[in-house]
Amino acid sequence: MTRNGSIEQTNINLIGMRGVGKSNVARRLSVMTKRPVMSTDLLVEYAFGMTISELVAQHDGDWRFFRDAEFAIVQQLAALDGLIVDCGGGVIVDIDDQGTETYSSRKIELLKSAGPIVWLQGDIARLAAKTVNDPSRPSLHAQHSAEQVMRSRLPFYERAADFAIFVEQGHRQEVAADIASHYGIG
Question: Residue 143: is its pLDDT beyond 70?
Answer without folding.
Answer: no
